[in-house]
Amino acid sequence: MTGASNDNSPPLDGLVAAAQSAQAKSGRGPPPVHLWNPPNCGDIDIRIARDGTWFHEKTPIGREALVRLFASILRLDPDGYWLVTPVEKMRIKVDDAPFIAIRVDAQGDALVFQTNVGDEVIADAEHELRVTWNAETGEPAPYLHVRRGLLARLSRPVFYELVELAEVCDTPEGPAWGVRSNGAWFAIAPPGAGL
Question: In which element (H, E) is residue 60 found?
Answer without folding.
Answer: strand 59-60
